[in-house]
Amino acid sequence: MHGGDLSAVRRRFAQAPRPWIDLSTGINPVAYPVGRLPPETWSRLPTREAEQELLAAAARRYGIADRATIVAAPGTQALIQLVPRLMPRSRVAIVGPTYAEHELCWRRAGHDVIAVLDIADASSADIVVVVNPDNPTGRLIAPPALRAVDAALLVVDEAFIDFLPTAASLAGDLPNNTVVLRSFGKTYGLAGVRLGFAVAPARFARRLRDELGPWAVSGPALEIGRMALGDEAWLQAAAKRLAADQERLDALLIEAGFTILGGTTLFRLGEHPQATRLADVLGQQGIHVRAFADRPTWLRFGLPANQEGFRRLTTALSRQVPQKVWQTR
């Protein structure tokens, strides 16, 4: 399940007003202010010292005591592709519906994959994969239920967990059979930096590190990640702003006839009987949302970045609902 690629949408709706508003991703629309980086971050190879400083910042942010268990990578996607290649052929259960790259990567690596609707249905699998909270439904599985998974490997993708209480994550108290994936770009609005982390038992972490090889994370990414992960004040302010914007978006979607099925602080999943048509209508207005071919009544909305984004979304949706309905709801 992907979002964020505007190229095809721009071609399809060539006459749409500009600039485009991309609500198809679950990325913080107000990015961390990077500022000016030291020139040497661009001109020299990434240093071991800079990597260690990043890992120290990530360990503090995620509550990890043993830095040997955390691995930095050029984006979580790289880890999603790498982990299946390190495991022998296995029976893999993926709890869904969820981010499609997990299933694709395990199948591509030669594993036998089944999709299950509930973690309780994964009991026969050697490997269990969970996105927690889920993308796109926002379903959250409590840590005790995850710790009870009796599998050779449990992969927990925590890409959208940063705005939940620390206790929701397994990263700080890692079970011996578990690999946790953490995303940087979504929370900090810097997806283009390409930075992510795996938290794994030390032996498996070494294997990941060896496979990634030297200089896996760029110098600018090391510096930006170190600064952002250490900025607790910014994160708290972002959480407050995003929570208010999430409530505002929910109210707007409900007013337009959607049922809110779930989501996270960074995106909302709505159901509407005319979702496919509404996605086209929004596209004609220069607003890109995430549609699902296998769930034609679903649309996923990221958060608008500002008042103008909310205004354009409100205007586009209000044209599809009788005016008297908007006035009386």
List keywords for this structure.
Aspartate Aminotransferase, domain 2, 38% helix, 329 residues, 2 domains, seven-stranded mixed beta sheet, disordered C terminus, globular, single chain, 13 helices, Aspartate Aminotransferase, domain 1, alpha/beta
For the secondary structure, the number of strands is 13
Total domain modules = 2
The CATH topology annotation of the largest domain reads as: Aspartate Aminotransferase, domain 2
CATH architecture group name of the largest domain: 3-Layer(aba) Sandwich
Strand order of the largest sheet: 2-8-7-6-5-3-4
Mean pLDDT: 95
Rg calculated over all Cα atoms = 20 Å
Low-pLDDT sequence parts: 323-329
Overall SS class:
alpha/beta
